[in-house]
Design a protein that fits this description.
24% of the residues lie in helices and 38% in strands. It contains eleven helices and 24 strands. The relative contact order is 0.09.
């Protein structure tokens, strides 16, 4: 059994001890090109790996730590060094003990240093260590990909490129190029690359949560360079100026969402209000410059999808992390908002009824270019290495989208509720009066053969009437609305009243 398969079995046993646990596979390169990272006394390579593992994992997570170079008969790669579930105690000591004896690998039965196969390492981590399940694969490498000492590194890099961009298993990938100058007996290097690959959609959510948490920034201060996806959230909309309209007040929430407070009374009979909003359109896809793209936007509010009028329809030369102003006009679909007599309005009377919505931004004909500053940095860290081509956007990606959540708060006031309550009380009073009328006794005056009589009855009763001889001459039917004689015997002298 290959050593990593043993790690896979261990990982499968501990991978999901809780619903929120994340499975991590940390791949640490130890091929010949990595010689200075292991032999330079000042090298921070192993301490970096330990620090990243400590920052990325939390109690309940599962981790596999493995070294990798290139797998050969008698020398499989990757090779598991540690497999465990992270408990409440830090894993630093266990990780340190596993990394301490790790040295540069050699080929079997030879003094030649081992070669490197990045694609093999990542592919094996996904299929064996993760066992086809979601998780995060971390790759610590000097960015040299040369299986069998193959000098055609461009072709090997393209294979690695295809694994990341064309494969469906990897849903998100980011990279951190780090400055780490080292010098060994044979080689020297200026930098190191840390890759993170999210496997499946759950892995993507886990990576997004990790990046948002800020735990990694305690170890790696460089911003993450995005490799994938390049067709989502490439731009960010931040409202900077909003002109309020009658009946509508806009505000920007701390998390960047736009909120519109709508006075239902003020907008009930007037035209649909349209707000003029100025945005800051930010490039959120480091390290790429949006060289050119056509831009369009639409709002989805209260079940109505409407186009947003933009002051311009193109964006050009938008560098990563930079912003351009963008003016727009957005109409609020007042006709689609719940009326003041709706159940939702009555339930929220006196407070705001919150209607979630969103603004969608679409970029078409998008052309991305790797920023010159990033190119220069990569050239400095990895001189002569063609692997930065991995950052070249795939030709098929010519569009992207971004979404800004919007919150519409509808203010109905308490008047409809008070009116409804008043009507309800009136209805209850009428029903009570009807109930009393139906249950209380009545006195009805009838005359039988010239003799006045008083009959005690109530609504719904049928009371027989008899003459002096005891013969039935009629029935008195009493309802909520009056009395009447029924079944009167022929020739009988009987009437209501005197």
């Amino acid at each position: 059994m290959r050593p990593l398969v043993l790690a896979a079995a261990a990982l499968c046993a501990v991978a999901y001890p809780s619903a929120w646990a994340t499975s991590h596979v940390f791949l640490v390169q130890n091929s010949g090109w990595m010689e200075p990272f292991y032999t330079d006394p000042a090298s921070q390579y192993k301490p970096l790996v330990e620090a990243v593992i400590g920052a990325a994992t939390q109690p309940g997570d599962a981790l596999v730590l493995a070294s990798f170079n290139q797998g050969l008969p008698g020398a499989p790669s990757p090779r598991a060094l540690l497999a465990r579930t992270v408990d409440n105690k830090p894993s630093t000591a266990a990780v340190h003990a596993a990394l301490a004896p790790l040295t540069v690998a050699r080929k079997p039965n030879s003094n030649a240093l081992a070669d490197t196969d990045l694609g093999e390492a990542v592919g094996t981590a996904m299929t064996q260590a993760l066992g086809g399940k979601p998780g995060l694969v971390w790759l610590f490498t000097n960015n040299k990909n040369s299986p069998n000492n193959d000098q055609a590194t461009a072709q090997r890099n393209r294979e690695f490129y295809q694994l990341i961009h064309a494969g469906t298993a990897i849903t998100k990938a980011v990279a951190f190029p780090l400055h780490m100058p080292v010098k060994g007996e044979r080689y020297s290097a200026n930098g190191l690359m840390v890759y993170v690959f999210a496997v499946q959609e759950q892995g993507r959510r886990e990576l997004d949560a990790l990046l948002r948490s800020g735990r990694l920034t305690q170890v790696i201060t460089e911003p993450p360079a995005r490799l994938k996806p390049l067709d989502q959230d490439t731009v960010r909309l931040v409202p900077t100026r909003v002109e309020n309209v009658p009946g509508v007040t806009f505000a920007t929430l701390p998390d960047g969402r736009l909120r519109a407070d709508v006075d239902a009374q003020a907008t009930a009979n007037g035209p649909a209000p349209a707000a003029r909003i100025t945005w800051r359109l930010e490039n959120a896809i480091y390290p790429y410059t949006i060289a050119h793209a056509r831009i369009a936007a639409q709002s989805a509010l209260a079940g109505a999808v409407q186009p947003i009028g933009l002051a311009r329809e193109e964006v050009t030369a938008l560098a990563p992390g930079k912003a351009q102003p963008l003016a727009s006009t957005m109409a609020l679909p007042v006709a689609n908002l719940p009326g003041k007599w709706s159940l939702a309005a009555l339930q929220s009377a006196g407070s705001a009824q919150v209607l979630p919505g969103r603004i969608d931004v679409q970029l078409a004909g998008q052309r991305l270019e790797l920023s010159q500053a990033f190119r220069q940095r990569m050239t400095t860290l990895f001189p002569g290495d063609p692997l930065p081509d991995i950052f070249t956007p795939p030709e098929r990606i010519q569009g992207s989208r971004a979404t800004l959540p919007v919150e519409v708060r509808l203010q109905h006031g308490a008047a409809p509720l008070l009116a409804a309550l008043g009507g309800l009380f009136a209805l209850l009073a009428a029903a009570g009066a009807a109930l009393i009328a139906a249950t209380r006794g009545r006195k009805v005056l009838v005359t039988v053969e010239g003799e006045p009589r008083t009959v005690h009855t109530k609504a719904g009763a049928k009371t027989p009437l008899y003459d002096r001889a005891g013969n039935k001459v009629a029935e008195l039917h009493t309802t909520l609305f009056g009395n009447r004689l029924a079944d009167v015997r022929e020739g009988a002298q009987v009437r209501l009243g005197r």
